[in-house]
Design brief:
The protein contains 12 helices and 10 strands. The chain is α/β, with parallel strands linked by helices and about 260 residues long. Helix 6 packs across helix 7 and helix 10 runs antiparallel to helix 11.
Length: about 260
């Protein structure tokens, strides 16, 4: 597929989507948003891929939605075009998605990161929800995912008073899995993703499903999802292979079935 606003590559079992509007600090216009999700869905369907990275460049992961594209949008257009639905496509990706963040992750950029499954940040990464400074609030999950992740008080400060978090702070508050040097941050994220991609594919899928249920359900419902997913894995060849490999003291050979 030919893309105009992103670049894609594969490294081993890792599919990488790179946001590529550097002159606009990778601000998400609708074209880029569509291409990002198209590319992610292609990797999601590809059996040779086990994990997906979304990244930007050293200066900016993404500085939010494209303000110039959004400035003249009317209320009616917002309602009719249902732009939230486009952003929601990330929820349909079943493989683990890792955000590799360097520089700015602001507004919709930060919300995109919040919707990913894991985050590798370079030491220069900065996270924030500055929508209040342009007269709006987050519209792609920022108030909800952020509050669930960092708690009410800090989320309030970020959303109402434009508090930005450094990479170290983001790690401290649970928004980031690991912080790495700016130089080679994508390589570090790729190594992390490759490790994840080497795990039993069906179990990874179920694991993502079950952990996500913790944010969508009551404890009782979440435990029911976990139980169902756990039981289902006993219908896979990989469960037999994984346990047999342990007993035989060898590495498992995953089939993804
Ligand atoms: N949109 C458009 N252009 C942007 C941009 C943005 N968000 N951010 C940066 N740029 C452009 C700048 O306009 C500039 O372009 P030229 O003017 O030179 O042509 C170029 O990128 C470089 O930016 P700066 O000159 O400002 O660079 P600095 O290093 O001085 O500052 C910065 C970098 C990232 C701190 C600064 O550019 C900045 O504050 N940018 C805006 C950040 C922001 O306010 N982001 C929130 C946007 S609102 C929705 C879902 C999501 C959203 C909305 C709806 N629905 C589902 C309905 C999300 C909304 C948002 O994200």
């Amino acid at each position: 597929m030919t893309y105009t606003t992103i670049l894609t590559e594969t490294r081993g079992r890792v599919g990488i989507v790179q946001l590529n509007r550097p002159k606009q600090m990778n601000a998400f216009n609708l074209a880029m948003l569509g291409e990002v999700f198209d590319a992610m869905e292609v990797f999601d369907k590809d059996e040779t891929i086990g994990a997906i990275i979304v990244t930007g460049n050293e200066k900016a992961f993404a500085a939010g939605a494209d303000i110039k594209e959004m400035a003249e949008v009317t209320y009616a257009q917002m309602v009719v075009e249902e732009r939230v639905r486009v952003w929601d496509r990330i929820r349909g990706i079943r493989k683990p998605v890792i955000a590799a963040v360097s520089g700015w992750a602001l507004g919709g950029g930060c919300e995109f990161v919040l919707a990913c499954d894991m985050v590798v940040a370079s030491e220069s990464a900065k996270f924030g929800q500055p929508e209040i400074t342009i007269g709006v609030i987050p519209g792609a999950g920022g108030t909800q995912r952020l509050a669930r992740l960092v708690g009410k008080q800090l989320a309030m400060e970020m959303v109402i008073n434009n508090r930005t978090l450094t990479a170290a702070e983001a790690q401290q508050f649970g928004l980031v899995n690991r912080v790495v040097a700016v130089e080679g941050y994508l390589d570090a994220a790729a190594a992390f993703a490759e490790e994840i991609a080497s795990r039993a594919p069906m179990a990874v899928r179920m694991a993502k499903d079950a952990v996500n249920a913790a944010f969508e359900t009551t404890l009782t419902e979440g435990l029911a999802v976990e139980k169902r997913d756990f039981y289902q894995l006993f219908a896979t060849e990989d469960q037999k292979e994984g346990m047999q490999a342990f007993i035989e003291k060898r590495q498992p050979n995953w089939k993804g079935k």
